Request: fold
Amino acid sequence: MKFNKKKINKIKILDENFREILFKKKENKCFCCGSQSNLTIGHLITRKVYAVRWDFDNVEIQCRSCNFLHEYRPEIFFYYYIKRYGFKKFENLYKKSKMKIVNRKEFIEEKIKEFSKLKSEDKI
Reply:
């Protein structure tokens, strides 16, 4: 399998920008347990799904313990998410995750521009 280094670098840049914006936008404590240490990003729907990988509705800040638990018992994260935001938001996110991205390269470029603009305008 051949990897495209330029694409991987763009995804890494996008992930870093997304993380930076997310930590400014959301409360710096674990979404599940309230801990303020060892914080990371927890994706409700796996990062492999590009349609929602960089969607702020698909991520919450989690401590490493809750994020690790989420890998093996996702229903716990789903429960907290639905409790806080409602089933309709969860359902919309799930539907969005099923959308096909026709041109991944173009999609990634658009997201990079979107997050660069957010960072430069400080609209976080």
Remarks:
- The first strand starts at residue 39 and ends at 43.
- Helices lie at 5-25, 50-53, 64-72, 74-85, 87-97, 104-121.
